[in-house]
Each structure stands twice: as C-alpha cells, then as structure tokens.
Write a structure and sequence with these properties.
2 helices, seven-stranded antiparallel beta sheet, about 5% helix, 38 strands, Immunoglobulin-like, about 50% strand, nine-stranded antiparallel beta sheet
C-alpha cells in the first residue's frame, strides 16, 4: 500500500473513531536505523498533570502588557500591549514534569486556559549543565492540553549565547522545555570497578512526518505531538576507541540503555572517560534541520577527585546605627579519595571588612572594631560521596556579628559585641559536576541586624 493510500485510510478510521491525533508517513529515509513508529502507535500518550514543587509568583498585568519570571528564574512570560483587555493576575509556578524528554521541572502559567488577544512569548532560561546532556539544536518547548497529551511547537527561537529558548503562544496551560535527544547522566564519578547505567532518551519529532489532524483538542496551529521514541538504537564507544584500559560495557551494544564498568585502576590520561552514544536518525527533520548521525557524550571521572570551594558572606546594614556593608569569606579544598571519603585538607579564612568602618545618626556614633575571625571561620570537615552527590559536615569556630565601639550622647561610651550567629552552614551538599556551581543562602531574620546573604562557588579541579 502506498504512503498516500495509507494516510487516506487512517483519515477514514479517525473520522469514525476519534482516537488518533496525528498521522505519520510510513516511508523511512534511506539508511535509517531508527524507523518511524507504527501508525497505530503515533497518538500522543496522555500523562498525569504535574504537582506544584515551587513557590507561586504572581502579579497584576493589564492592557499595557508586562512580564513575570518564576521563582527559580527559569520560566518567563512576556505579555505585549493589548494582549489583555483588563487587569489580570498572572502567575507562574514550577511543577513536576511528566513530558517525554522534559527537563527537571515543568511550569504552570495561570490562569489556566486563559486566551490572549495577541500572542505572548514563553521563555525558558537554561544552563551550560543542561547542554552537556544534549545539543542546543535538540531543544524544544511543549505544553500539556486538557487531555494530558503534550504538544511541541514546530517553531522556537533558541539564543544559545544567552541560553534562552522561547516560543509564541496564544493561551496558558502547563509548559516545559524538552529535549528531542539527551544522554543521562551527562557527568558522573565512579570509583574503580564500579558500574554506571547510561540512557539515551529520544522523542519522535520528524517535522515532515507528524501532522496534527483536524478535530484534535489542540487549540493552536504549528504544533505536533510529543511522542516517546521506543524504536531507537545507537552505537556506544569509550574514549572514541583509544587503546587503553578505560573500562568496558557489560550489556549488549546497540541499545539506548547500557551499563558501563569502570576500569580496575585510575587511568593516567583521558580521564574523565568519554562514553559516546552515536545515534543514526536517518535524516529525521527537527526544527527545520535534518539529523543523521548524532553523537552525545557522557563524561565519567574515575577515581579520586577534588573541588575548590569559595565562600562570600555579605551583611547589608550590619550596624544598627548607620548603613554599612560587612564582607567576610573563606576558601577550602574538598578531596574525595578512592573509598568515597571526603576530607578538607586546606582552609583559608579571609579577614572581614566593613564599608564604611564608622557612621552615626543624630545622637550616636558607631565605629567597627576590626577582628581576624569574622563570622566565617572554617577549620575543617569530613563527609562521604554517594549517588553522585557530596555530603560534607563542616567544623567552624563560633562567631558573632561585627563588634562596634559606641559613643552615645546619653549613654556614654561602650562596646557592642553583636549577637551570636552561625556563619557558614554546618552541612553542605552539592552534586559532583565538572562545571562551576553556585549555591545561595539568604537570612533576613531578626537574628542579625541586617540581611545576610551567602554565595558559595564550587569549582572542579
């Protein structure tokens, strides 16, 4: 039966059953090792609706337009002028993600079901870490309809310099970034002789073969369903076939999932080990580009490893008398040995500063009393590495907020030694990655005079 005849037959079936939402060509490109799914398998598979995991951010936006960003800074919507006819409370909240190929969180844009008089722009900000599991050309944006099915936009804008992907839409529902093709994990650490499961996830996404049919629940043109690609195959390799003991695969090759076993000793070179998946998509067209053989790489560090950690602490208005900025910090090294045990062999604590060092109000003058300890004074630490995450217990000296010499016109002269607070957190955890990471802490309670903020920068060695 010809492809045209088969499509006509499918249309006839759909007109009576209403069960299928899209059609698919049955002719595969020449040399395609990943043939398209069977026609009966191409309907979108509904998934559960996500549940909230983040804080709802909302604001009132009216006919003049505006924008709003999610609490984690990932999702954003830009509403142009005249898209709304009246003031409307617009919200964004991160939720669990059930979209095939979806990135960690999806986002609920509210009011759910709201339609706009003009299209709005939905944006997602991504990181270098996400790009380690895929390619910028393999990213997309999808939304979930009222039946639970997911639809992706055939046209998106991806600014890989500023790492923002965006799409134009006419309504609100749950949206997410998704990846047409990705490898997980993109980075891992394994001790010698340990195993690691790797997986390539594919979404069926041929622009030329998937076509929404009339009468679907999809309210917007230029979208196609997001479908899990179950027939994919790939070829795996270790360090591009370089000779040497860099580990081995202990499951059959050619599958999207494979198990890698680390070598019996730490390699003296080419470490991290590059585990490559070569996927032949046979010319599948996605976002206007054709994909044949595409290579995704996971980096696996073998043996012991280290990180440099830098802590920067700031208190705005550390004095009760005047506006000042208090800065303190520390740096230390985190080492993980072949037994997954963590130690901190090096810790350097910086002397704190206050700018300006003195100030006054109508009746009182306060002058900072310099000290060498400050509120961040790391003396050591220990911990364990497990599940690709480092967990550390830190030891540090007790500390107080900055001390001040007070001259008061009524009370005279005295020293204010501040209030006892904890400086650096007693416990710290972060994932083992080969990219720079940033952790942020803020404490605006009455335990200190001002707002304490802390930035921790983690750099792999």
């Amino acid at each position: 039966m010809s492809p045209r005849a088969l499509v006509l037959r499918l249309l006839f079936i759909i007109s009576f059953s209403g069960l299928l939402f899209c059609c698919v060509k049955t002719s595969a490109p020449s040399g395609n090792n990943n043939p398209p799914p069977n026609p009966q398998d191409v309907k979108p598979e509904p998934t559960a609706v996500g549940t909230p995991v983040g804080t709802l951010v909302s604001q009132t936006i009216g006919p003049n337009g505006g924008s709003i960003v999610s609490d984690d800074g990932v999702a954003e919507v830009i509403i142009p002028a005249n898209a709304l006819s009246a003031n409307t409370t617009i919200g964004i909240q991160s939720i669990t993600n059930n979209c095939p190929g979806g990135t960690p969180n999806a986002y609920r844009f509210t009011p759910n079901g709201l339609h706009f008089d003009q299209n709005v722009t939905v944006k997602f900000h991504y990181t270098d870490q996400l790009l380690k599991s895929t390619l910028a050309d393999l990213m997309g944006i999808a939304y979930q309809d009222s039946t639970g099915a997911w639809w992706r936009f055939k046209e998106v804008s991806n600014d890989s310099i500023n790492k923002v992907i965006s799409a134009s839409t006419n309504h609100f529902t749950d949206y997410t970034q998704f990846l047409f093709m990705q490898i997980t994990p993109s980075y891992a650490v394994r001790q010698t002789n340990k195993t690691l499961d790797l997986l390539v996830t594919l979404v069926y996404a041929d622009d030329d073969e998937l076509v929404p049919l009339p009468g679907t629940v999809d309210p917007q043109p230029s979208v196609v369903p997001v479908i899990v690609y179950k027939n994919g195959k790939c070829n795996w390799s270790i360090n591009g076939g370089i000779a040497g003991d860099y580990g081995s695969f202990i499951t059959d090759n050619g599958r999207l999932a494979i198990t890698y076993k680390a070598p019996g000793s730490v390699p003296s070179s080419n470490n991290p080990v590059a585990i490559s998946a070569n996927i032949d998509m046979g010319g599948m067209k996605y976002m206007g580009k054709k994909f044949n053989k595409t290579v995704l790489v996971s980096s696996v560090k073998i043996g012991s490893f280290s990180y440099d950690v830098d802590v920067d602490v700031t208190i705005i208005k550390a004095s009760e008398v005047y506006n000042d900025t208090y800065n303190d910090g520390a740096s230390f090294e985190v080492d993980v040995d072949e037994h997954n045990l963590i130690s901190i062999p090096i810790a350097v604590n910086r002397e704190p500063t206050v700018t300006p060092p003195s100030g006054h109000n109508a009746t009182t003058t306060a002058t900072w009393i310099p000290d060498k300890t400050g509120i961040t004074n790391i003396t050591g630490g220990f911990g364990v590495f497990a599940n690709d995450t480092l967990g550390i217990l830190l030891t540090n000296d007790g500390a107080v907020t900055p001390s001040w010499h007070i001259h008061d016109e009524i009370l005279g002269d005295y020293d204010d030694n501040g209030e006892s607070i904890q400086g650096f957190p007693g416990a710290l955890s972060f994932p083992a990655r080969d990219t720079v990471q940033h952790l942020y802490f803020t404490n605006g309670t009455a335990a200190i005079r001002g707002t304490l903020s802390m930035t921790i920068t983690i750099t792999p060695k």
